[in-house]
Write a structure and sequence with these properties.
This protein is α/β, with parallel strands linked by helices. The chain is built from 13 helices and twelve strands. The protein has helices spanning 13-25, 41-51, 69-83, 96-101, 110-125, 167-176, 187-198, 230-239, 247-269, 273-278, 282-287, 294-306, 321-332; strands at residues 2-7, 30-33, 56-59, 62-63, 87-92, 132-133, 137-138, 160-162, 179-180, 209-218, 290-292, 311-316. Helix 6 (167-176) links the parallel strand 8 and strand 9. It is globular, with a radius of gyration of 20 Å.
Length: 333
């Protein structure tokens, strides 16, 4: 199992890069860069490529609707070249509020778009003359010309990881992607939620990489830190998407918290955000974190491994994140 972490949206990216350089020395294997509606991910990933030597650098995520498929392929190839073959292209749909509210682009057919973008990216990296007939039409008549990439990518198959929660999207991810980026992953319940979709991995492909984890703190008196996740979970379950279309609400409902999900959403959409956070089940906070004594954290790592997780993605809490990462890296063997 490899060790990863995700850079937060806020803060100075240059300071974050200084930290990541130290974390690499501590044994960090993968750093993920989020985008949402903050700084773009690619710029920060390029800077990280210059500041690091070994670790992989992934986007988590580049939203599908914000760039053409060809530009996504170009961006990934450029980052892969700058990093010497250490880039991971993390793709995802984001959600209607961000895509339609921030980018002004219709949020439609995310699963089909993901599949087509991956197909086009891989054709670009192989330096094929790119033609495609689907949601994306290449070349676009009457004046478009079919082209191949001018430059030579470092790799002709850059790893593609997909952020997916729904059955159709997870099934597509298992069928064609290199890795999967779930969210609010509960290892003990992952099989009942996604097991059937993950069975569609073709026999000829390597095992699907799975990136999951949560907040990290190790000690005898740290369990109160689980409470810090309440506002974020309430935001996603209650406020991401609309009342009738919220992937995170659907997920924790499938975990067995349907009544709690409805209550969180009701409170959040009514503007009662603190009450929504208080309604997040303590059991869910515990199940989606690695916070507790060292023996407990080791048990949680084993549970993630048993669920098929190959990259333990953690958010270290406390004054010395580098030391925490070193300790967990030692637990991974």
């Amino acid at each position: 199992m490899r060790l990863g972490t995700t850079l937060m949206y806020a803060g100075d990216p240059r300071t974050a890069a200084d930290q990541v350089s130290g974390w690499e020395r501590a044994g960090l294997d993968v750093v993920w860069v989020a985008e949402a509606y903050g700084f773009d991910a690619a710029t920060i990933m390029g800077y990280l490529a210059a500041r690091t030597e070994r670790l992989e650098i992934g986007s988590a995520i580049l939203p599908l609707y914000t760039r053409t498929p060809a530009l996504i392929a170009q961006t990934a190839a450029g980052l892969d070249a700058l990093s010497g073959g250490r880039a991971i292209l993390g793709l995802g749909a984001s959600g209607p509020q961000v895509i339609e509210g921030w980018h002004g682009v219709p949020f439609d057919r995310p699963v089909a778009r993901t599949r087509e973008i991956i197909e086009i990216c891989r054709a670009v990296w192989r330096r094929e003359i790119v033609t495609h007939d689907g949601l994306y039409q290449l070349p676009l008549p009457p004046r478009g010309k079919a082209l191949k990439m001018l430059t030579h990518p470092v790799r002709d198959r850059i790893p593609v990881y997909v952020a997916a929660l729904g059955d159709a999207n997870v099934r597509m991810t298992a069928e064609i992607a290199d890795g999967w980026l779930p969210f609010l992953f509960v290892p003990e319940r992952a099989g009942q939620v996604w097991g059937d979709a993950l069975k569609h991995r073709p026999a000829g492909l390597p095992p699907l990489e799975i990136v999951a984890g949560g907040p990290l703190a190790i000690g005898e008196n740290v369990t109160a830190l689980r409470e810090l996740a309440r506002p974020q979970i309430a935001l996603y379950v209650g406020g991401m998407g609309s009342k009738d279309r919220n992937f995170y609400h659907d997920l924790i409902s499938r975990y067995g918290y349907a009544a709690e999900a409805d209550r969180i959403q009701e409170l959040y959409l009514a503007g009662r955000k603190q009450e929504a956070a208080a309604a997040v089940p303590a059991e869910l906070l515990e199940a989606t974190s690695l916070i507790g004594p060292e023996s407990y954290v080791r048990e949680r790592i084993a549970a993630y491994a048993q669920a098929g997780v190959t990259v333990l993605n953690v958010t270290p809490l406390g004054d010395d994140p580098q030391r925490l990462l070193e300790r967990v890296k030692g637990m991974l063997g």
